[in-house]
Amino acid sequence: MIYFDNVSKVYPDGTVALEGVTFSVKQGEFVSIVGHSGAGKTTLIKLLLGEGDCTSGSVSFDSVDIQKVKMKDMPNLRRRIGVIFQDFRLLSNKTAYENVAFAMEVAGKTDEEIASDVPHVLELVDLSKKMWNFPRQLSGGELQRVAIARAIVNHPDLIIADEPTGNLDPINTYEIVQILKKINDLGTTVILTTHNKGVVEALGKRVITMDHGRVTRDDSTGKYAL
Amino acid sequence: MLWITIKRIIKAGFVSFWRNGSVSLSAVFVMVIALFMIGSTLLLTAFLGTALRDLQDKIDINIYLSITAPENSIFDLKSRIEALPEVKAVTYISREQALETFRVRHENDHRIIQALDEVGTNPLTAVLTVKAKEPAQYEGIAKFLENKSSLAPDSLSIVSKVNYNDNKVAIERLSRIMAGVKKLGGIITVVLIGISILITFNTIRLAIFIARDEISVMRLVGGSNEYIRGPFVVEGMIYGLVSGLLTVILFYPITYWLKATTEGFYGGIDLLHYFVANFIQIFFIIMLSGIALGAVSSYLAVRKYLSTR
Predict the structure, then answer these.
(1) Which of A133, B19, B101, B223 is an S-S bond match for B218, by CB 3.0 to 4.6 Å?
(2) Hey, which residues 200-229 in chain B have their CB within 8 Å of chain A?
(3) What is the pLDDT of residues B209-234, one digit of tens each?
(4) Is A22 on the interface with B (CB under 8 A)?
């Protein structure tokens, strides 16, 4: 489903972010990418989302070379990928409901679909009672759950979670990981980047370890090996 | 689908305007100032135009006719002058009318009225007042009147004096001032409107700069450029709409105050009258400039954040 073929990325200032990265991810897999800060995890994800191009090699998603996707077709590609970030990235002037609804609106869903799906998905992440709260009225764990609800509401083929537990306490971290696991159990491919040893070990799924822009290990039921 | 998208964009624009209260308020304030500048330049230019036309109307050439001139010769001369293409109107004031006007004008001055009574006969001459279409044309008309061959000999004999040369300096100066004012007014209008556009554009750019992170989030969630841009353009149009309304409302007390305080000279600068008389026109100009300014500024400001992939 996802294929990184000998990908290198050098920033204009000469920093090498990725060097000869090659790996693939199959449909329905749960892959954790671990590594120190600056190992290239975030760059990897940016390339997958089409935010910037790689210097050499290619990144493909469902046999489509992401670098060759035209600007006007980019939104369509992004609607097939749900993203979750460490800093949540919710729209601050929209309520939890509206944040989730926005993802459906841009995908061209009807008002009826939105009215039935949004409360349902917020219930899945246990936020029914705070549906009409603004982000500033929610805690870190709740914000991340809104972000997850937004990421899954359009039934994407792939969920990318970039350090989703970085700002959360252990209890919230556990809950978020359980939700991601549940999403994966239902068949959605998940790519998770993290620093958190406990998370990786508890998952017991495939782990790709990165260091200085290279893939140093790729274990099918890996452990956190840093 | 298109209709649903348009409906969502408009709604999002309104909601965003309302929820970003402080940003909207400051944008509206700045736009009121910009629109006020545009409005007052237009109002002043238009006022100057009418004031100059009034002034222009006061210029004329008087042809004083000899006391003995028979009326039919006078009418003959009048129609001959009226036939000139530069002439707008020729008014005939008979000796009796001239006397009447003179008496009315000096009714409080006993000595003049007494002197007039003592003369016994009417000492005033009949006058033909000539108005040109343009102030610059008086010179030509005066030359024609002075040129003896262009008038029939008998007509010439009845003209005792043409006062163009007395007024010449004043008329020439006025023509120059009017041309200057028109040119300067045009330049000032263009410059002020340019400044207003820049101020508005920068304010809206700042408002959208604040929302740049949100724009990137919208893109990540899969929003198309049109769908992201739409609500910002609608919000810009609302800024324009609200500022336009406030500006039009503001004009009433200000023109009223201006009229009251300037009553002293030249009959007062009566912008109020002009404002009220041309209200619909002014209302639409200000509202449309506001809405167009807001929409175009927003469109351009968001474009910056949507230009990459």
Answers:
(1) B223
(2) 213-214, 216-225, 227
(3) 988 888 999 988 888 998 999 999 99
(4) no
